[in-house]
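User: Okay, second chain of the day. Same drill as before: sequence in, structure tokens out.
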Amino acid sequence: MTITVRELTYYPVKGCAGTTVDSAQVLGTGLEHDRTFMVVDAADGAFRSQRTHPSMAAIRVEVLEAGAALALSAEGVEPLRLKVDRDGPRREVSMFDRPLGAAADQGDEVAEWFSDALGAKSRLVRVAPGFDRDGWGETPGKVNFADAHAVLVASTASLDGLNARIATRGDAAPVPMDRFRPNIVLTGNDEPHFEDRVRRMILGSVELAYSVRAMRCNVPLVDQRTGRRAGPEPVRTLATYRREPEYKNKVSFGAKNAVVCEGVVTVGDTVEVAEWLSR
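Assistant: Same drill. Structure tokens below.
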């Protein structure tokens, strides 16, 4: 079967809505503009996410002027156009109680905007020049403000398999792919979760290498259009067949990858699997 790229999405502000594109430049830290910005607690610099603020899903972010500006919109607040300060005042930030170092604060106006949108005092920060963060796993790679890895890959076969299982329950609707917030969606292979076995792949001029399965928290319970929790699916059904004992019995969906060769990937590109993990 011929595997191809079905969809490409980057998420400029961690936790906020994604931007789906036909073609993307892929850097060592992932798709260009992906998780370059992060919303943090104004008091202690801890990151904010849909885990505690599901309404972040409905905050729309448009990257303008090749990253020099952002356009922000959300229900209940006036739209804001922000001039990006790549070298703003430094603010110490953290993720999962781990310090990430200093990020570039984007100023009071956008801080007030996110505070109003989320109902919690917040600041917006950007990856600062010289930021250097390692991932982990089989191939660690580098990462910006994503949880721990550069690129999240999922497949239509995995989603189809999940939705078929949900359908057998008869009490829930199928879930869309955006519940899992992947960067790259693959199609053309009908084996659910085949992306777990891909150790190296070439897409366009990009090469990715497997890091780890993607462990899921409560974010897949959030309707990405409305920013409201709509569970218990898909986590309820994933728990019946995708538990990972080595990760405290969390459920998994998708595979996280490192970038080992930068380049350009385009929807429709054929995917060459350079290395498979044996069944």
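The helical segments are 108-118, 156-169, 235-238.

User: Thanks, on to the next one.
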